[in-house]
Amino acid sequence: MACGSIAERAVLLIVSYDYDRLLCMWRHVQQMILGDISKHGKGVELDSDARYAERAGCSVPTVKRAMEDLARLGFVVRRKGRKTKSSERPAIVSGTEFSFSHTAKEFRSQLSTTLIEKSCRLPNRSFAEGIETRAHTALGLKRDEPFLVISRRRDLNGIPRVIHRSYLNPSHYSPTFLADHDFESESLLEVLENEGLSIHGRETRIRAAVPTDAECHLLSIEKEPVLSVEQRLYATSTTGRLVTAEYLHATYARWEYVISDRK
């Protein structure tokens, strides 16, 4: 039994090392591609996946993964049978496009915010189906490194509607970041931009969920379905690296999404 447990730990260490090495290489390839885009401009043909693999000293699948992520974020355009090009559209967007505060104002809703938590801590690994563990991994943090947590309840026209939990990598912000800001009155996205992060886009996953007892209490609801949202906000840091600027988990009560497509 003892030998088996040692062998299992050894396998886990090897897998963890291989994953960290792959992640590091994938980020290196991303930075290489972004460097070429910055150098050559918009709408320009880029090197082939094979050429990037040769330049980076990695496998072609690693380059393909990096390219797919950059395509999803709008940096590159990939079409079957054609060479990959840098995107024609601006890569950087305004944080107001994603701001809950800005949207509430646009729809003439009275928004008030209550701060629930403002801390620097390790993830709670038993929290709501591993959400904090996923946030910690997405931010690129090591197991023993804490993240910043900013949790807020957002009320629209006096009714509790949303709980926003923002997870941040401390290395992207000043040591006094939490103390320097009033997160009940300030837009977090504006704060992030003022910290030197240039926002590029977001990836959002939405699903129906059953609220926890704490969420029911905070949102003044019964055990009724809610929308559970997990979102990565991507940005370029002050060092020029593409990073996850924020990992957001949000719980929306009695919410409706309306999608209107226009051609």
Q: Strand order within the widest sheet?
A: 3-4-5-8-7-6
Please, how many domains? 2
Described by strand count, sense and barrel closure, the largest sheet is:
6 strands, antiparallel
CATH architecture of the largest domain: 3-Layer(aba) Sandwich
Please state the overall shape, judged from the principal axes of the Cα atoms.
globular
Number of helices: 8
CATH class bucket of the largest domain: Alpha Beta
Structural class by helix and strand composition:
alpha+beta
Poorly predicted spans: 8-17
CATH superfamily of the largest domain: Chorismate lyase-like
Per the CATH scheme, the topology name of the largest domain is Chorismate lyase
Question: In percent terms, what proportion of residues is strand?
Answer: 25-35%
Radius of gyration over all CA atoms, rounded: 21 Å
Helix-strand layout with pairing:
Blueprint: H1 2-40, H2 49-56, H3 60-72, E1 76-77, E2 85-86, H4 100-106, E3 111-121, H5 131-138, E4 147-156, E5 159-168, H6 177-180, H7 188-194, E6 198-209, H8 213-219, E7 226-236, E8 242-252
Antiparallel strand pairs: 1-2, 3-4, 4-5, 5-8, 6-7, 7-8
Helix pairs in contact: 1-3, 2-3
